[in-house]
Amino acid sequence: MSDQIAALKEQLEETSEALKDMESRYSCLTVKQILTNRELQDARKESISGLNDVLTSRTTLVVKRMGEIDQKAFEVASSRKFPNKDWQETCAKLCSLWQQNVQDPKWHPFKMINIRGNLQEIVDEDDQKLKELRNEYGDVVYEAVSTALMEMNEYNASGRYAVI
């Protein structure tokens, strides 16, 4: 009996040490992620500041927010689906709704596939919300939402908000 207790105590101590080690690693990784994010934001601000010095008043610069839905796809689909109604208002509401869906961290319409030995995450075409969207508004709107989802997942998976 005392041998079992001693073995359990030893196992508990090992598990406790392993847990402390994992917590320490997690803390280090969290701090590193925060510092890296700050460094990235500082570099972004510096780049924008540098561009302001280089650009003239005639220069046109377009900034794409990664993870933001392309509203033009919704405009085309809404004008076709609601030609007699106020399609612009419907389009704005629909686009806002889907932008909220894309930003919802609880919704994860992705699946993992194996491509040449590498696991990659892609948009799950069998996701119920996406199926309904494609059936009701067509492939162009579906592709706009899928693109926004992939951008969001690639550029800001942890925050689920659009980034420049």
TrEMBL record:
One matching Pfam family: XH
Ranges in coiled-coil conformation: 5-32
InterPro entries documented for this protein: FDM1-5/IDN2, FDM1-5/IDN2_XH
Any one of the GO BP annotations: gene silencing by siRNA-directed DNA methylation
UniProt key word Cell inner membrane: no
Residue span(s) of domain Factor of DNA methylation 1-5/IDN2: 64-163
Keywords: Coiled coil
Protein known as: Factor of DNA methylation 1-5/IDN2 domain-containing protein
Organism of origin: Gossypium raimondii (Peruvian cotton)
Taxonomic lineage: Eukaryota, Viridiplantae, Streptophyta, Embryophyta, Tracheophyta
